Amino acid sequence: PPSTIPAPPERIPPGVLAARDYERLAEQCIPADRLAYIAGGSGEDWTARANSAAFGRWSIVPRVLRDLRTGHTRVRIAGEVWAQPIGLAPVAFQKLVHPRGERETARAAAATHSPLLLSTLATTPLEEVAGLLSPEAGQPRPWLQLYLQPRREDTLALLRRAEAAGYGAIVLTLDASIQLASHRALRAGFRMPADCVPAHGSIGVPASALPAGASRIFQGAMAQSARHEDLAWLRGATTLPVWVKGVLDPADARALADAGCAGIVVSNHGGRTVDGVAPSLSLLPAVREAIGSHVPLLFDGGIRSGADVFKALALGANAVLVGRLQLYALAAAGALGVAHLLQLLGEELQACMAVAGCASVADIGPDRLLAVPDFN
Ligand code: FNR
């Protein structure tokens, strides 16, 4: 069978009333084996499910008689103004769900002035994506998510390309040294189609060349994974601000902020590393507390609605990123779907802000949330 799937019609699918509906539609828009790969986490998907379920622990506390006539969702993140505190997470291999892949996502980012983080494993060259965004028209510059390449010269080449193409930041992903497959994807027989190839880089060296008896994990994946000195090297090797993604531990976050990282993305990679990892939201307040109020902090993992966005902001994030929802909307209606998703998330967030009496994102604090007592 052809591995490229046909483009969906560019119209908002009937029945999409809320951002979450794009997840419900995914079964109709994405072949079952590909959906298993995308939706699945690691192992039995416990962490992936827990990421979303964690939002159910919190409820929103309303206010009345507040003057919200000047209300808005704009945020300033590391010097750039975003129309709403919602960006597109780096998600690899977008041609799995749309023949034009990341180009469509970039068109949606341009139309909605949303930040886009391009994966190292994108199926579209980073220059092409940058060419679809106009910072001079007020659209945020794209950021490049980086996997350190096995050879430093290859990482340097990527950095030079990102700098030349006008990227605004490098986001180094630290949590993907170990990525155990989703059992759901294995059972569905998912294999990456031969023509779905990354446009620029790899995720690391395959551990196939290890001597007999060596540990695939420790002498393989972990021997190649980044250490603090690699981060220091990276910061010295580029003129761009360096963020780090995939941090959950408060002490790690503190050390990274102290080391001069431009910002931190609290994330567990959508539950795709090892099953049993803590839900991303559960550690967000402790990370915020550890780094103080001034270090920029993005959050991802399990966001499916504007209420989820509100809760993440209340628990300490400056903005959030969406991963899977982005692919579901891309599969359903291309650029229009992704733009529509971002608009729905923004409107749902505005409704939560209105009911909670928050005129700006800065007003959304932990006092707007109440823990649901019987949550389990
Ligand atoms: C990802 N994610 C990811 N992260 C990253 O830093 N580089 C990458 O290339 C990818 N690729 C990728 C592919 C797919 C199919 C998924 C689902 C996820 C993780 C992503 O950036 C983000 O952390 C999570 O997706 C957030 O969780 P939600 O929004 O999907 O629940």
TrEMBL record:
FMN binds at residues 90-92, 119, 145, 173, 245, 267, 300-304, 323-324. Keywords: Flavoprotein, FMN, Isomerase, Oxidoreductase. One of its GO terms (molecular function) is FMN binding. Its cofactor is FMN. SUPFAM superfamilies: FMN-linked oxidoreductases. Residues 11-374 form the FMN hydroxy acid dehydrogenase domain. Glyoxylate binds at Y37, Y147, H269, R272. The active site is at H269 (proton acceptor). Transmembrane segments: none annotated. Belongs to the FMN-dependent alpha-hydroxy acid dehydrogenase family. This is Isopentenyl diphosphate isomerase/L-lactate dehydrogenase-like FMN-dependent dehydrogenase. It comes from Pseudacidovorax intermedius.
